[in-house]
Amino acid sequence: ANLRSAIATDLPTRAPAFFFVDIQPDQIEPFLARVQGDAQVTKVESAPMLRGVLTQINGRPAKEVAGEHWVVRGDRGVTYSAEPQANAKVVAGNWWPVDYTGPAQVSFAAEEAEEIGLKLGDTLVVNVLGRDIPATITSFRQVDFSSAGMGFVMTMNPAALPEGEPDDDGRDEFFTGAEYTNHLAPADDDDVIPFP
């Protein structure tokens, strides 16, 4: 379906009025304090987000497997989380343990996985900031993209997208400036909420 058509015809009655991106880890707490302390703001959602390109599926070029499916046409928002997001229900497979630090795992949106023909145990390579991250699909999630809320096709375990300095095993860690995306819906869409 065409995104513009979907926005024009399928946008829910109550949708986010603002989206904020590129809020850095040291900025997120004061930002959230500001918006959550404003009576005009009725809902705030927040998640870490990076951009990634699905380049391979089971060792083959992703477009060769998925054709022109929208998931493989350009970069997609990729997040990481120790626990499943509240707005996405795991419908198959298993979520990784909260403290999991093994090989990269990914939870994939169930509907899109079915359209592409993905199965539990399939391997993907996601290129994030120029780095190839191989991961195994360990669960599928029901993600409602029609709500205009936060939804990610791919969610990885936190250790798959490391931050900071190289650790003891010499692995080159990256994503020091993890990007956050936030959106909120004020009570009146005409109101502007200033942030210093």
User: What's the mean pLDDT score?
Assistant: 78
What does the main sheet amount to? 6 strands, mixed, barrel
Query: How far apart lie the N and C ends?
Result: 39 Å
Trace the largest sheet across and list its strands.
2-4-9-6-8-7
Tell me how many strands there are.
10
Series of H and E elements: HEHEEHEEEHEEEE
- How would you classify the helix and strand content by structural class? alpha+beta
Rg of Cα set? 18 Å
User: Could you name the ranges where pLDDT drops below 50 across 5 or more consecutive residues?
Assistant: 164-183
> Number of helix segments?
4
Can you put this structure into words, describing what you see?
- With 196 residues, this protein is of the alpha+beta class.
- 16% of the residues lie in helices and 36% in strands.
- It has four helices and ten strands.
- The protein has helices at 3-10, 25-36, 62-66, 110-116; strands spanning 18-23, 41-57, 60-61, 76-80, 88-93, 105-109, 123-128, 131-143, 154-156, 179-186.
- It has a six-stranded mixed beta barrel.
- Residues 164-183 have low confidence and may be disordered.
